[in-house]
Amino acid sequence: MEGIILKALSTRDKVSSEELAADNKVDHQEVVGAAKSLTAQGYIVADMETKPVWNISEEAKEIVEKGSPEYNLWKLLGDGDLPQSKVQEQFGKETTAVALANGMKSKLLKIDKSSGQPVLQRNAATASDEVRDLLQRIIGGGEANPKETEALKKRKLATLDNKKVFLYTKGPDYSVEVKAKAVGDLTREMLVTGAWKTTSFKEYNFSVPAEDIDGGQLHPLLKVRQEFREIFMELGFQEMDTQHWVESSFWNFDSLFIPQQHPARDLQDTFFISKPATSEVVQKELMAKVRAAHEAAFRTPWKEEEAKRNILRTHTTGSSAYTLFRLAQMSEKLPDGTLKFRPGRYYSIDRVFRNEEMDKTHLCEFHQIEGFVVGRNISLANMMHTFDKFFRRIGIERLRFKPTFNPYTEPSMEIFGFHTGLKKWIEVGNSGLFRPELLGPLGFDAGVSVMAWGISLERNTMIKYNISNIHELFGHRVNINFIKRSAIARF
Ligand code: PHE
Which is a Pfam family this sequence falls into (predicted)? Predict the structure, then answer.
């Protein structure tokens, strides 16, 4: 059908859908459908208009052919009368009823019931078949007045409908032949066969909004972690291996000179592992030195069973101790008893666990930003300078230090930063110089100092993203849209 429409327009400026349907003896709707697709492709332009058309019923068609029942009855009666029963025999009951109803209304017929038996009579001397004439007129394209239209509708003979008809003219992309549909993709075959030369391609539509890409997103914590990592790298720190969540009590506590009776080692604060409940401390020599240091300082027997207990690490400071241990192991012990080691800066950002009461700012697990610098002649002033540099990079320009106590550092300082957004001093970390009782057993001489610290990744991220409840940042209550939309952290 498409081809026929296009061909029709090659010799004419315009053609109507009705003409096309009539000339080709097809349903009007078929023409309209085919033309719609041509219009969409720009071959033709369609102008729609509504046209009143008569919908003629089967009954009306019969009237046109045979005359209306009332007129036929009038003719049958001639000059005489006929009992209704006789008429019914000839016309059938239904047609008789129709003839009578309409005939009496138009005063062609009447009914006489005086003899007890209904007798049908003419009521007009002359008559014409008005309904048939009207139907013939409208079928022939003539008009009907509103009264006539109403009467035809009431008698269910004909209704006037609005038909959508179209006038077609050539469109901007007119051609006599239907071209192959434009394709979206250039394929290998097209290149190999050279078909691309004659293929028409769909045009780019630059105004279509791009599809939402729903890929993975980095969690804000990971973004902030990356920022911190980069700062550490730029300051010359190297990353420690902290890829284990389960730690022996030995590395988490004992190596850090935390007494075995210390409350941090209670069930209330620490998650103990039941399977396997213990692990062997393989560094026997170190263990002996640690035992000696503990027993000299705390005056209670030091138990290996206690050191063997497995826990979910409560901090990553055990890894700092292990890193220092490895460093000392790899270094050369000079004849004067000092250690020839490479001074260095180390950091890690990894998960730790504490048996905490959970609230707005506490979770049972969080990430610790751990760091230490090992060298000779490291002073408290050096440490404060390092913190100043580091926190300046994350947007905290004013620092305050408060003396505190840690079993493994002396002196120890809590670090407070002035948060300009919140306009208050907030605790950002804990720090100190590792005690000689800790460094000695690890293999360092008394002239070596280590400044070390731990900072919460979550605290800093909450500040950056202006989050007041830690549950919005971590855990099952996190809104996935927050993760998707959160900007890359800006300091
Ligand atoms: N381990 C400490 C904590 O968990 C942080 C810290 C590390 C303090 C190193 C001093 C030195 O809070």
Answer: tRNA-synt_2d
The minimum-distance atom of ligand 1 relative to the CA of 431 is 10
Q: Where are the domains of the chain?
A: 220-485
pLDDT in tens, 338-383: 999 999 999 999 999 999 887 777 789 999 999 999 999 899 899 9
Residue 491 has pLDDT above 50, yes or no: no
Taking alpha carbons only, the member of 131, 70, 62 closest to residue 100 is 70
- How close is the Cα of 453 to the center of ligand 1, in Å? 5
| Edge-to-edge order in the sheet of strand 109-112 | 82-83, 119-122, 109-112
Separation of CA 60 and ligand 1 centre (Å): 101
Say how many Å lie between the CA of residue 476 and the centre of ligand 1. Answer: 28
Please tell me the distance from the alpha carbon of residue 41 to that of residue 452, in angstroms, as a whole number: 73
Compute the distance from residue 433 Cα to the ligand 1 centre, in Å: 10
Cα of 221 from ligand 1 centre, angstroms: 20
Q: How far is Cα 305 from Cα 365, in angstroms, rounded to an integer?
A: 26
- Residues with Cβ within 6 A of ligand 1? 315, 317, 406, 409, 430-432, 452-454
Domain 220-485 belongs in CATH node 3.30.420.40: no
Atom of ligand 1 nearest to the CA of 454: 5
The rounded distance, in Å, linking the Cα atoms of 143 and 135 is 10
As a whole-number percent, the residues of the chain with pLDDT over 70 amount to: 99
User: What is the Cα–Cα distance from 289 to 280, expressed in whole angstroms?
Assistant: 16
Q: In this structure, are residues 268 and 355 in contact, taking their beta carbons and an 8 Å threshold?
A: yes
Residue 352 CA: nearest ligand 1 atom is: 4
Q: What is the DSSP string of 278-294?
A: B-----HHHHHHHHHHH
The token pair that represents 387 in the structure block: 């913190």
Q: Which two tokens stand for residue 80?
A: 């005489």
User: Which residue of 406, 431, 455 sits with most ligand 1 atoms within 8 Å of its CB, as the best mutation to test the pocket?
Assistant: 406
**pLDDT tens for each residue of 218-227:** 888 888 899 8
In ligand 1, the atom with minimum distance to the C-alpha of 314 is: 4
H-type helices in 394-453, by residue range?
436-442
Q: Is residue 440 a contact partner of residue 293, using CB atoms and an 8 Å limit?
A: yes
Record the tokens describing residue 440, joined without a space: 């000695």
Cis peptide before 411 (omega within 30 of 0): yes
Identify the pLDDT of residue 216: 79
